[in-house]
């Protein structure tokens, strides 16, 4: 079980391209993704899809007690158009502590004014809506789990930071 550090002792959000990750960090990220998506959620798919190593991919994570407790990746940072957030995952013992919100806030800072997309598990659409995402199509099944495609439009320079601040103020731990 992860301990809940006081705010002044929080681990910083970390972000890196694949080439900047050490082997232990890559292993810890892949283990967390496998433990949650494949084992817990029973989604039997090829998680290693080749996108992790692309130059425009940024890996974003938080640690607690020297373990990766939450993670997401941002795709397509080096191409025009919308960035894509995916593989958002929190370790079971760290759920409800606000880590996913911290990761999303950081991800939107990295994405900046660009539009972005994600595929939300249907029960999490309200969480992503707090960050400016809206449903863009009908619910669909992915590996037996209901998902909703969501988008966040391009932001004006001041609009993006205001939306992030608003989401942080309204945040409930997820």
Automatic annotation (TrEMBL):
PROSITE patterns per UniProt: GNAT
CDD domains: NAT_SF
Pfam families: Acetyltransf_10
Name of the protein in question: ElaA protein
InterPro entries in the cross-refs: Acyl_CoA_acyltransferase, GNAT_dom
Gene source species: Mangrovihabitans endophyticus
A GO MF term: acyltransferase activity, transferring groups other than amino-acyl groups
Domain N-acetyltransferase: start-end pairs: 16-155
Region (Disordered): 153-174
Source organism superkingdom: Bacteria
Leader sequence segment: none
């Amino acid at each position: 079980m992860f301990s809940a550090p006081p705010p002044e002792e929080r681990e910083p959000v970390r972000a890196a391209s694949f080439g900047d990750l050490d082997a232990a960090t890559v292993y810890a990220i892949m283990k967390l993704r496998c433990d949650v998506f494949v084992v817990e959620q029973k989604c039997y798919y090829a998680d290693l899809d080749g996108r992790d190593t692309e130059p425009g991919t940024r890996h974003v994570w938080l640690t607690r007690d020297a373990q990766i407790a939450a993670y997401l990746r941002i795709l397509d940072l080096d191409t025009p158009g919308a960035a894509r957030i995916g593989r958002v995952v929190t370790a079971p013992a760290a759920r409800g502590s606000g880590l996913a919100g911290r990761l999303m806030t950081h991800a939107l800072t990295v994405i900046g004014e660009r539009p972005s997309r994600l595929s939300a598990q249907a029960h999490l659409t309200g969480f992503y809506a707090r960050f400016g995402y809206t449903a863009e199509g009908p619910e669909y099944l992915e590996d037996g789990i209901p998902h909703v495609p969501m988008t966040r439009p391009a932001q004006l320079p001041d609009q993006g930071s205001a939306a992030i601040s608003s989401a942080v103020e309204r945040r409930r731990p997820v």
